[in-house]
């Protein structure tokens, strides 16, 4: 049988990134090879949790929605045929570079908006979205799109921060963050001057915070309701992932998002739209 190809699934392409995208300037934080990232989180633990859930429904082809620089796509590519989608070109360029260096086969890299996924319905055995709902104004659309492009009986996995109580960090996290930022400042400014990029990453984070501040605050209840509303049966919920995935700094700060908990939810598509 012919191997599936990205072109088999595409509806059309979108005019993407008409303006500078601040996510283009924070790529280093999402790079699988970034040493500082490892201080905060352990990507391979996330990958194991996700592999187990996709394996249970015998997934073969999966879509990583809002894949960033592709840490998960790369780790999952050993087991699945992975398609990776993100709005930031530079994130995708980094994914391409790392996949090549690490000799990993990521099937297709797609520059698109996750609120309007450019694939036909029922294209993938599984879809994953890890921390890429909070940056979008209509996360319910992203979830609906994930369900739409997933095949019946396929799985939709969402990993997010539970922001029921807003975005405020607790005191402990604030202290660790501030210290970390002061220590990193020198290195960052030096790197930035060397790279001569448009934006320093601290500036980019400010823009990201500003442009996302009115987005719905993602939480487990909201995500579950949207998944169920799209005809999914919830097959797994894990609200303890934060205790498993933290690196050294993650542990002492109480996790990257301070007092907030993280959740993983897995839905299986029954009816769908
Ligand atoms: C917090 S990062 C998470 C990246 C990756 N999933 C991870 O966990 O390492 C959020 C990602 O969502 C992407 N993003 C933001 N808005 C998006 C949109 N409308 N459509 C697709 N991706 C988007 C950003 O470019 C960024 O790579």
What does this structure look like?
The protein has 273 residues and is α/β, with parallel strands linked by helices. Helices cover 41% and strands 18% of the residues. The protein has a single domain (6-269), classed as Vaccinia Virus protein VP39 (Rossmann fold). Helix 5 links the parallel strand 2 (81-86) and strand 3. The chain is globular. The two termini are 28 Å apart. The site of S-adenosylmethionine has 18 residues, from loops.
Summary, kept brief:
This protein has 273 residues and is an alpha/beta fold. The chain contains eleven helices and seven strands. Helices cover 41% and strands 18% of the residues.
Outline the secondary-structure elements:
Blueprint: H1 6-9, H2 35-40, H3 43-56, E1 61-65, H4 71-76, E2 81-86, H5 89-101, E3 108-111, E4 124-130, H6 139-149, E5 150-161, H7 171-195, H8 201-212, H9 220-229, E6 232-238, H10 241-245, H11 248-253, E7 262-269
Parallel strand pairs: 1-2, 1-4, 2-3, 4-5
Antiparallel strand pairs: 5-7, 6-7
This protein binds S-adenosylmethionine (SAM).
Residues 23, 30, 66-68, 71, 86-88, 91, 113-115, 130-132, 135-136 line the site of S-adenosylmethionine.
